[in-house]
Amino acid sequence: MASKLSHKLAILYHIRKVQLARVPICCTICISETVGGRMVTEDGKAQRIASRIALSITEGVIPRGTKLRSLRAAASAYRVSKNTIVEAYDRLVARGYIEPRHGAGYYVTGSQTRVEDPVTVRLVEAVDIATLLREQLEHNFTVRLGEGRPPAEWVEGSVLKSHLRNIASGHRGLFEHAYESPIGFEPLRQTLSRLLAERSIGVRPDHILLTLGANHAFDLIIRQYLRPGDAVLTDSPGYYPLFAKLKLAGARMVGVHRGIDGPDPEDLARKAQASGARFFFTQSLAHNPTGSSLTLGRAHDILRIAEKLDLMVVEDDAFGDLMPSSAPRLAALDQLRRVIYIGTFAKILSASLRVGYIAAAPEVTGHLANMKMLTIVNSSGYVERIVHAVLNDGHYRHHLKRLNERVREAQLVAIRILRKLGLQPWIEDGGGYYLWVPLPEGIDDIELARRAARESIFLAPGSVFEIEGTRSQRSFLRLNIAYVDDPVFQDFARREFGVS
After folding, report:
1. 23-26: which pairs have CB atoms within 8 A and are 24 or more residues apart?
2. Contacts of 217-221 spanning 24+ positions with Cβ under 8 A
3. Is 160 within a domain?
4. Residue 198 neighbours by CB distance under 10 Å
């Protein structure tokens, strides 16, 4: 243990010396308890420190063979605990940046064939759907403007933790350890039926199918109704994980232009007729990535076209609980005759609570329930009970009110910062977590994301959200409003966009 600690105590003396010599004192790297006003966990601090050191090694600021500072000195310099430095060094050893030498400390590896961090390399060298999805899960980057979810502290407060404790301790929701109904926990379906009634969507509990989140709902629909080579219509820009599922199924994607008021009806009608597609996937409210929401007139146009051309419409309402119950929804106007409605709690409660649902006509939910049984047998009754308990608790509506306030405040701050950087969001009052931001002329979004990745900044380039044939001539970024205030991103943007 002593030798391990002596090894781990080695790295930061030289790093700190080099950094202080290279940049002004006010710019030296310092990991504090908060970043951009948000609390940072010990694990997050360790990742930030490891990323900074790795970047210095990669750029040659810290030469190969350099002996690094002690744990105590490193902890003092970064203002963290020694355990955090131990964790940071362990990550660097695992990635091949440094190596332990028994009794001598830790050294920057002298090998010419050092193993690079594979995730960072992939994100720097190629930005695509798979790498963006992986980064959403693995959190290798420090600054996370490309993140699809809100910060954990926005959605995982006491409203959720109390129910997790109750379920875990057995004080609530005891049940047999056996398979339950394949369509999901009945009391939760009853609650969802009442919730959807508030949105003017009339659906019985037995016509609601519980899923492992919205992406599982998409997967069931695609497996049931699409075959390789089938044409399928979808928003463009649109939800890139859906694009990946459609590609995996061998479907032929046809993008429908998405405007400020929703999908373009003329483009939808023209492409539906030309392609022979029978399914159209769309997100009506707080659209990912543009932030746009469907207007009532546009909703009527889409349903009229769907009726005329015999289209089934899959409506994603990921932000349903955040949006007004009176907001235009295709499912409310159509009453699930040719609309399949998808909801989820990942964006509102926690991405770790994999619970979503499908509301549809009886024959549709029947088919999809069979597909669910064939593929995963059943969803999680335990997790469904947690969500049911949360929804029926009096604190849930208070949580939604607080979350809405956070979204509005973060949106105002983000827009103000972006204007100072010379950027103007496409839509300013979308109500969700995203801003769709056009880049200055001549800046390529993919190349910008690669340059950002070299500084441990995670950006989501607009090209990933667009389907071939519908891409705009101008480049865009999808920015998460919760992270725009990060000073590291702001400094990067000033340099990239020539803002003083």
Report:
1. none
2. 217/342, 217/344, 217/356, 217/357, 217/358, 218/242, 218/245, 218/281, 218/314, 218/316, 218/342, 219/245, 219/375, 220/358, 220/368, 220/371, 220/372, 220/375, 221/279, 221/314, 221/340, 221/358, 221/368
3. no
4. 9
Cβ neighbours of residue 383 closer than 8 Å, sequence gap 6 or more: 353, 354, 355
pTM of the full predicted structure?
Answer: 0.70
Residue-range definition of the domain harbouring residue 478: 119-146+397-497
CATH of the domain at 127: 3.90.1150.10
- Same domain, yes or no: 350 and 467: no
Q: Which residues, at least 6 apart from 39, have a Cβ–Cβ distance to it below 8 Å?
A: 33, 153
**One domain, residues 336 and 389:** yes
As for how many domains the chain has, the answer is 3
Distance between CA 456 and CA 142 in Å, rounded?
Answer: 5
Question: Is residue 151 in a domain?
Answer: no
Vertex 452: Cα angle to 454 and 241 (nearest 5): 110
Q: Collapsing DSSP states into helix, strand and coil, what is residue 473?
A: coil
> Which tokens hold the place of 345?
């709690």
Quote the CA–CA distance of 356 and 54 in Å, as a whole number.
Answer: 39
Q: Which two tokens stand for residue 389?
A: 């308990």
Q: Can you tell me the distance from the alpha carbon of 77 to that of 85, in angstroms, rounded to the nearest whole number?
A: 10
Q: Show pLDDT as tens, one digit a residue, over the chain (500 residues).
A: 444 434 443 443 343 443 433 333 233 333 344 444 444 566 678 877 887 888 778 777 788 888 888 888 888 888 888 888 888 888 888 778 888 777 777 788 855 344 444 444 444 444 555 555 555 555 566 666 766 666 666 655 545 555 555 554 544 444 444 456 788 999 999 999 999 999 999 999 999 999 999 999 999 999 999 999 999 999 999 998 999 999 999 999 999 999 999 999 999 999 999 999 999 999 999 999 999 999 999 999 999 999 999 999 999 999 988 899 999 999 999 999 999 999 998 888 877 778 999 999 999 999 999 999 888 888 888 888 888 888 887 778 888 888 889 989 999 999 999 999 999 999 888 778 899 999 998 899 989 988 888 888 888 899 989 997 777 778 999 999 889 999 999 999 999 988 87
Determine how β-strand 98-101 pairs with β-strand 105-108. Answer: antiparallel
Measured CA to CA, the distance from residue 314 to residue 316 in angstroms comes to 7
Cross-strand bridge partners of residue 479? 435
Which residue, of 342, 360, 393, is where some domain finishes? 393
